[in-house]
Amino acid sequence: MIATGTTKDTIELTENANDVSYLLRFVYPNKFPVSISLDELPSCLLVVQKYDIEGALEIIEEIILLDGSPHRLLSSEPIRTYQLAVQFNLAKTKAAVAPLVAIDQTNFCDLSKLSELSQTYPPMKLVLLPCVH
Description:
- This protein has helices spanning 17-27, 41-50, 56-66, 73-76, 78-87, 91-101, 114-120, 123-132.
- By secondary structure, it is mostly helical.
- The chain has eight helices and no strands.
- The model has no long low-confidence stretch (mean pLDDT 78).
- Helix 1 (17-27) crosses helix 2 (41-50).
- This is BTB domain-containing protein.
């Protein structure tokens, strides 16, 4: 017997079209994303984690570790990448980006350097840094 779908079979997703697009790329074979921009990375990580897409976090981590064009996720914004690596438990990414964050041995927990840090790094990233440790 063949049945057709009805409106009762519709599932509402809270994600936007771009996030669903990334989700589907991990579900369908031969459609994996080749690159992910740093702006899209947090929502992409959230959606594959939310729907527990097997192997997707590992693939995303490999994309990050390639650090290739056009986005250069590791080298362009190492602090933001490190924060995401900690948040999503990306061990390889955390290990790869840690030297880039600590390259000048900056102590982000030293409040006496707050004015210097606020001029170097965008404020929202400084707010999120305590969550990293």
